[in-house]
Write a structure and sequence with these properties.
- With about 350 residues, this protein is an alpha/beta fold.
- The protein has 2 domains: about 200 residues, Rossmann fold (3-Layer(aba) Sandwich); about 140 residues, N-(1-d-carboxylethyl)-l-norvaline Dehydrogenase, domain 2.
- The protein contains 14 helices and 12 strands.
- The strands form 2 sheets. Strands 5-2-1-6-7-8-11-12 form an 8-stranded mixed β-sheet, sandwiched between helices. It has a 4-stranded mixed β-sheet with strand order 4-3-10-9, covered by helices on one side.
- Strand 1, helix 1 and strand 2 form a beta-alpha-beta unit.
- Helix 13 packs across helix 14.
- The structure holds NADP nicotinamide-adenine-dinucleotide phosphate (NAP).
- The site of NADP nicotinamide-adenine-dinucleotide phosphate has 27 residues, from helix 1, helix 4 and strand 9.
- It comes from Dimargaris verticillata.
- This is 2-dehydropantoate 2-reductase.
- Its EC number is 1.1.1.169.
- Belongs to the ketopantoate reductase family.
Length: about 350
């Protein structure tokens, strides 16, 4: 039995939001699609962009994340039209229920962005969360959806596609990767709508993979562990990933981070009854270190997302990466000095450029 979706809303129309909305429009030309914009200024920019999304593709996009080149590669633009928009200020007065909300804000923006939509989301809604890091769903459940019976069905997603915005509603799909997702188990009856959303995602030509929840959690934890051991060091030392393995001082920091991360995640897996021989091995300090080194080698010329955030003086997602590990370590009373030091150092950088902006 197939269920058709009345409409898909996309919240957070930056780089990844433009990618997702553009692909949804291209693949499903008749699907009603609405962008949820922050405010009237964002709506004015949408009108100035002729209510059109532009997604650029390097003519030879293949393989993982982009490598910086001296001459910019040729970009081929595809336009997506026939998309509606509403602002969050309209949303707080609007009452029409939202069937499917694809959320592509940064992790730290999500709660505030979703709050005005709360009254339009219930157990019949499906919310797809596509963010780096961990902890957003739990934060939303605590702050906005404390009653399990009226909670939307969540789908968590993660991607290795690489995308950067060049202007409002204009982004370049610079690295072709994959899109992985899983329906989060809930105490509510299994929703046909969640299946319909899963089918929609699976039909996108973005190398999508639906995974069982336990397998997907391991994927998220692995990605988080690697990001936590690479991103803050590159951001603090303003270096590309490859520099971490050629610098003995950074190698020592990575070793400490891998030790701490391994202990924290092993406890987390035990608590959530996810521990087994494979996960024990994958999250052992040695295996984790080897994995981190391999990622640094294969992405040697890349700037991590946190390094890019610091370069552009944007807030980072540290609270949902190393910060998430710190919160677990605090619950388990496990020492976490290296993660703590890095979180504090990144917060200090963020505070510094916030002060510069306010000056
Ligand atoms: N870009 C990538 O290649 C990539 C790859 C993998 C994963 N990710 C992850 O995907 C997530 C999104 O990343 P991104 O690069 O797309 O970030 P982004 O370009 O900064 O997009 C976030 C968008 O959310 C909007 N937003 C924030 N608060 C809002 C609110 N209250 N109401 C409405 N809109 C709001 C922002 O609008 P304003 O500009 O007005 O703030 C911005 O357009 C992040 O977690 C990131 O780590 C990104």
């Amino acid at each position: 039995m197939t269920v058709s979706l009345p409409r898909v809303h996309v919240l957070g129309v930056g780089a990844i939001g433009t990618l997702m909305a553009s692909y949804l429009r291209q693949r499903f030309p008749a699907l009603p699609l609405t962008l949820v914009l922050r405010n009237q200024a964002a709506a004015d920019r949408w009108n100035a962009a002729h209510q059109t999304l532009a997604l650029g593709q390097h003519t030879s996009v293949q393989g993982p994340l982009p490598v910086t080149t001296a001459t910019p590669p040729q970009v081929h633009w595809r336009l997506a039209t026939g998309i509606d928009a509403e602002t969050l200020t309209d949303s707080s007065s609007a009452t029409s229920p939202i069937a499917c909300l694809v959320v592509t804000t940064k992790a730290y923006q999500t709660r505030a962005a979703l709050a005005p939509l709360r009254a339009r989301l219930d157990s019949h809604s499906v919310v797809v969360l596509l963010q780096n890091g961990l902890g957003v769903r739990e934060e939303l459940e605590k702050a906005l959806f404390d009653r399990p019976a009226t909670r939307p069905q969540f789908i968590l997603a993660t991607t290795t596609h690489g995308c950067y915005a060049t202007a409002s509603y204009r982004a370049v799909h610079a690295g072709f990767g994959g899109l992985w997702f899983a329906v989060v188990p809930s105490s509510n009856a299994p929703s046909l709508r969640a299946q319909a959303v899963a089918d929609l995602l699976l039909a996108l030509p973005l190398q999508p993979h639906a995974e069982p929840w336990p397998q997907f959690q391991i994927r998220l934890l692995t990605k988080l562990a690697v990001n936590a051991c690479i991103n803050p060091i590159t951001a603090l030392h303003r270096c590309r990933n490859g520099a971490l393995i050629s610098h003995p001082k950074h190698r020592i920091t990575i070793d400490h981070l891998c030790q701490e991360t391994s202990t924290i995640i092993t406890r987390y897996l035990l608590e959530h009854q996810m521990a087994n021989a494979t996960s024990d091995l994958a999250f052992s300090p040695q295996e984790l270190c080897q994995h981190v080194v391999e990622v640094c080698q294969t992405t040697a010329k890349n700037k991590s997302s946190m390094y890019q955030d610091v370069l552009h003086q944007r807030p980072t997602e540290i609270d949902y990466i190393n910060g998430w590990l710190v919160r677990q370590a605090q619950r388990y009373r496990i020492p976490y000095p290296t993660h703590q030091a890095l979180v504090a150092a990144i917060h200090a950088q963020e505070a510094e450029y916030r002060m510069d902006k306010d000056a």
